[in-house]
Amino acid sequence: MKTIDEIPRGVDVVDVFRSPERLPAIVQEAVAAGAKVVWMQPGAENEEAAEAARIAGLTAIVGPCMYAEHRRLTGAA
After folding, report:
1. Predicted TM-score of the model (pTM)
2. Which of 18, 27, 64, 66 has CB 3.0 to 4.6 Å from 22, enough for a Cys bridge?
3. What is the CATH number of domain 11-74?
4. Contact predicate 7/33, CB 8 Å
């Protein structure tokens, strides 16, 4: 799949590993798809895009690794 809108059953979290300059367009796609969260992984941080996501009603997480956070929160080894 090349775009978020190609995902057949909707989107809850858009987990981004792209370069920061691509984030504004990705946030627009996430908003259009009805996503609830945009998670910008380390190296994909873009504060302006995060603010645009927040203004549109999404939760924007900027910087922490989703995998590391999951391990930290669940105590997974």
Report:
1. 0.86
2. 18
3. 3.40.50.720
4. yes
